[in-house]
Design goal:
Blueprint lengths: L19 H4 L24 H11 L12 H14 L8 E4 L2 H12 L5 E4 L6 H7 L4 E4 L3 E2 L5 E2 L2 H10 L4 E5 L11 H14 L2 E5 L25 E5 L13 E4 L3 H13 L7 H13 L1 H25 L4 E2 L10 E2 L7 H7 L8
Parallel strand pairs: 2-3, 2-6, 6-7, 7-8
Antiparallel strand pairs: 1-9, 4-5, 8-9, 10-11
Helix pairs in contact: 2-9, 3-9, 4-5, 4-8, 6-7
Bound molecules: pyridoxal-5'-phosphate (PLP).
Pyridoxal-5'-phosphate binds next to helix 4.
Length: about 350
């Protein structure tokens, strides 16, 4: 069988397919014809191997409770080994219906109501939502934009915030959405050592770790043996293979005490088995999806280069922040003098902003 879905130029009309970003724009206060770029959801067909595996399974016409057979773990472990040089153990793995769900479980498992949780703004907005919706308090170690056109961590402030606010839990976004940083080994070790010193648990959201354009991605827990004791590593095939609605993510927790606490919250939330389609999609993506993945990476890279060139050429007051990782671009509009609210409205007419 050959991979068929490699035509990333094909324009697919996703309207009237229950698509969140197109079909629900109006309900979210946007004009219906807006080009929705607010959510990390690619407009490509999935790998034809995934398409076929799901069609084949649906023909069984029985959708009772399901679990994975033995190869599932080996398949996920093999992806981690091949793509991230990370050896995982089977008893570290907990499957959840999404990474944001896992972030919420971590908040419940490792903090109490009223506790403070550390994040690094600007960051993917559900980070603060899952903290606040669980009646905890957000503390931010804000990232700053350096002369080198990249965002950086103020480590003095990072340690100060941990000490001052008695932080027990930190959400790391690696690579970082939206600022596009691929954290260096040195930066991650600084983070890890400070967190070890103060006994802070690190939830490392690495959902974008298969999109690296510059530098090397390092799985947080892989950098020092001691980090395995404090790390919850969140991975998923959902960004890499555009499978968000399959609701499948693989969370690795090497410390069994932390894993037990996390598992308890997942059970308390009433989740036991996941959807059979998510499990099949993940297995198929990681076994058969390499050709699609590589072709998609090359396509996205050329899109990023195109946006960069366009912004430099036509939008003279807009600056594109260097995208080292993720498939998102972060644009700095401050020089245009346009206020945030106005910019929000204008964003669907972008060429007028230069
Ligand atoms: C950093 C980050 N974490 C998590 C998610 C969403 O994960 P899930 O759909 O598995 O909850 C996204 C989606 O854009 C993301 O950018």
């Amino acid at each position: 069988m050959a991979e068929r879905n490699l035509n990333f130029d094909e324009i697919i009309d996703r309207r009237n397919t229950d698509c969140l970003k197109y079909d629900f724009a109006k309900r979210r206060g946007m004009p219906e014809d807006v080009l929705p770029l607010w959510v990390a959801d690619m407009d490509f067909k999935v790998s034809s191997y995934i398409e076929e595996a799901l069609v084949k399974r649906s023909r069984d016409a029985i959708f009772g409770y399901s679990e994975v057979q033995t190869p599932y773990f080996e398949i996920v472990a093999d992806w981690m080994r091949r793509h991230h040089q990370w050896e995982v153990k089977e008893n570290w793995l907990i499957k959840t219906p999404g990474v944001v769900f896992a972030l919420a479980m971590a908040v419940k498992a490792y903090t109490n109501v009223g506790d403070k949780v550390l994040i690094q703004q600007p960051v993917y907005y559900p980070f603060s939502e899952v903290i606040e919706d669980n009646d905890r308090i957000v503390v931010s170690n804000d990232l700053y934009l350096g002369e080198d056109n990249k965002y950086h961590i103020d480590f003095e402030d990072f340690e100060y915030k941990i000490r001052e606010h008695h932080i027990k839990l930190f959400f790391l976004c690696s690579p970082h959405n939206p600022v596009g940083r691929v954290w260096t080994k040195e930066e991650l070790i600084k983070i890890g050592d400070i967190c070890l010193k103060y006994g802070v648990i690190v939830v490392s959201d690495e959902i974008h770790n298969d999109f690296i354009w510059n530098g090397d991605h390092h799985i947080f827990a892989s950098l020092k043996k001691e980090y395995e004791d404090i790390a919850i590593v969140c991975t998923s095939p959902s960004k890499t293979f555009n499978l968000a609605s399959m609701l499948i993510s693989n969370i690795f927790i090497p410390n069994m005490r932390l894993k037990y606490k996390f598992r308890k919250q997942v059970n308390a939330a009433g989740i036991s088995q996941l959807s059979v389609f998510g499990l099949i999609a993940c297995e198929t993506a990681y076994t058969e999806g390499e050709e699609w993945y590589q072709a998609m990476l090359a396509y996205i890279k050329s899109n990023i280069d195109y946006v960069k060139e366009y912004v430099n050429k036509y939008l003279k007051n807009v600056k594109l922040i260097e995208t080292e990782g993720t498939y998102l671009v972060w644009l700095d509009f401050r020089k245009t003098g346009i206020e945030a609210d106005e910019l929000d409205k204008k964003s669907y007419m972008m060429p007028n902003c230069g």
